[in-house]
Specification:
The chain is built from eleven helices and four strands. A four-stranded mixed beta sheet has the order 1-3-2-4, with helices on both faces. The N terminus is likely disordered. The chain starts with 7 loop residues before the first strand and ends with a helix.
Length: 259
């Protein structure tokens, strides 16, 4: 991925994302629409209604999906595989660490991959949870490294990227959350972690070591679950957008086979 083609991991508390099983069409539309703005969606719905009116019929799901797809340029073959591996990596590791449900995956945005994940609220705020979060955030990069032997800049390059968020989290583990390897009881916040890391090489080394450990751990999980990782990446490559039901079906089948 290029610096402008990011992988965005969006978190939602699991308790706040109760979805009616009967709303399969809405879930599919929501997954397909990842990366669009409210104005984009409003325009697409307006155009779909106009199309239905001209055809003297009710608006259909296919009208809206076609509008979403028509709003985007086709993703080149090799890039589509990279994004599929990247997002499948996040999803497999998120599930393996039991962080919560995977709400949806999308590589059809033309601007990189997206994943929407939920978190079990009862598991947050422990050291293990933060380390699991780091592992999940580094899993996209680990997936590219495992499958393609080369990583792209898609996990970095912006303030909301995987690397940016993982770096902030590792920084907070060392400085504000009470889990630091040096002076863990000191609360030392800073508005600009980058400036602190540039000036404090020892801290930068510790933060980077946490990121390296998370990357290695994510890679180990993906190697152990290579079959389900491949299956999910292939399904995502083909469908380009998968809702929770489709993703969890593949992950659940893997759990059964591994059990």
């Amino acid at each position: 991925m290029t610096a402008t083609q990011k992988s965005n991991t969006t978190e939602t508390p699991a308790a706040a994302q109760q979805v009616n099983p009967g709303d399969a069409i809405l879930r599919r539309l929501a997954t397909r629409a990842m990366g669009l703005t409210g104005a984009d969606i409003e325009r697409i719905v307006r155009e779909a209604r106009l199309k239905a009116r001209r055809g003297k019929r009710e608006i259909r799901y296919e009208d809206i999906e076609e509008g979403i797809r028509g709003n985007r340029l086709p993703v080149p073959y090799n890039l589509r595989w990279r994004w599929a591996f990247h997002e499948a990596g996040h999803a497999v590791v998120h599930h393996a660490l039991d962080l919560g449900p995977v709400r949806g995956l999308n590589i059809d945005t033309g601007q990189g991959g997206y994943n929407l994940v939920g978190f079990h609220v009862w598991a947050t705020d422990t050291r293990d949870w933060y380390e699991n979060m780091l592992t999940m955030l580094m899993a996209g990069r680990a997936a590219e490294q495992l499958m393609l032997k080369r990583v792209s800049s898609g996990s970095g390059g912006s303030d909301d990227s995987d690397l940016a968020r993982a770096t902030r989290l590792a920084f907070e583990l060392e400085r504000t959350l009470g889990f630091g390897t040096e002076h863990p009881l000191l609360y030392r916040p800073h508005r600009d972690p980058g400036a602190v890391l540039d000036s404090d090489t020892d801290l930068a080394t510790r933060v980077h070591a946490r990121l390296e450990a998370a990357l290695d751990r994510a890679g180990a999980i993906l190697r152990r679950r290579r079959a389900v990782f491949h299956a999910l990446a292939k399904a995502l490559f083909d469908a380009q957008a998968m809702d929770e039901e489709a993703v969890m079906h593949i992950l659940a089948e893997a759990e059964i086979s591994m059990g």
